[in-house]
Amino acid sequence: MIQNAVSSVRIALLGHNDMFREMLARTIGEQDDMTIAMEAATIEESVKALSESDADLIVMDTEYSDGSCDELIRQIKSHTPKALVAVLTANNDTEIFLSAISLGIDAYILKDKPIAQLLQSLRAIRDGFCVYDCSTFKLSITEMAKFRNRQESDSSVDLSALSFREREVTRLLVAGFSNKEIASKLGISQSTTKTHISKVFKRLGVSSRREILSKFHHIAREILPDPNNSHIFVNPPSV
User: Fold this and answer.
1) CA-based Rg of the chain, rounded to a whole angstrom?
2) What sign does the dihedral 47-52-53-54 (CA atoms) show?
3) How many CA atoms lie less than 13 Å away from 104 in the CB half-sphere?
4) C-alpha dihedral over 131, 66, 71, 68, to 10 degrees?
């Protein structure tokens, strides 16, 4: 009996933790339907290696010595737009999750999951599904709802209180850019950027980027995945 061959997905592993990355590379290398296309520890190494790689799926951590997770995602989307992107991290911070989702990642998975479940998640991503950690997803929705309710009970946001520069900063904050990236785009120092952000927070009555998103809930709704989408797993699939 002739069986159809399962196509092998080529995976790029990006992250600062050499020990974890090497362990995961060995495990993936033992699978019949997966191969390692390349590995890198920094953003600079990742961008260079990806430009010379034919990876189908990029598995990346959230921490790098030479930049932010958001910065690397933007680089990936710019240079390898067809590649699938999965964030594999120990960090279930909802602010990082929402920002990564807004940039178009295909999965957000926590490292504490059993290795068999992680491999199933990678196969699901390969097959066209999105996979989001259940606890992080629920926490994000809960916090967004809490902040939105607070907004609806308060007076409407008065953007007229913001200067032109503060509006520019707010727009970039909502888009998910880091302080360093905002400074670069606006041609100002990071210290000045922090000052603008502090003023924006004070004028809008918020204390975090997450609350900025909740103030502009029409944008927040766009970046949160639809839980009714049948191609989304709100948790890695069970083995």
Assistant:
1) 19
2) positive
3) 14
4) 60
Q: Is the sign of the CA dihedral 27, 30, 35, 38 positive or negative?
A: positive
CA distance 81 to 83: 6
In whole angstroms, what is the distance from residue 223 CA to residue 70 CA? 14
Q: Give residue 116's identity as a one-letter amino acid code.
A: A
CA–CA separation, 95 and 126 (whole Å): 26
> What amino acid is encoded at 139 in this protein?
L
Measured distance CA(45)–CA(50) in Å, rounded = 8
The string of DSSP codes covering 180-217 is HHHHHHHT--HHHHHHHHHHHHHHHT-SSHHHHHHHTH
Task: Give exposure, 202-213, as e/b (b: 16+ Cβ within 10 Å).
Answer: ebbebeebbbbb
pTM of the model: 0.66
Q: Copy the structure tokens of residue 138.
A: 């629920």
Per-residue pLDDT of the chain (239 residues; tens, 9 = 90+): 344 455 789 999 999 999 999 999 999 999 999 999 999 999 999 999 999 999 999 999 998 999 889 999 999 998 898 999 999 998 888 888 888 888 899 999 999 889 999 999 999 999 989 999 888 888 777 776 665 665 555 445 556 677 878 888 888 887 778 888 888 888 889 899 999 999 888 888 888 877 776 666 544 444 344 444 444 455 555 55
Residues 147-175 as b or e (16 or more Cβ within 10 Å = b): bbeebeeeeebeeeebeeebebbbebbbb
Q: Which amino acid type is present at position 196?
A: H
CA 123 – CA 129 distance, rounded (Å) = 9
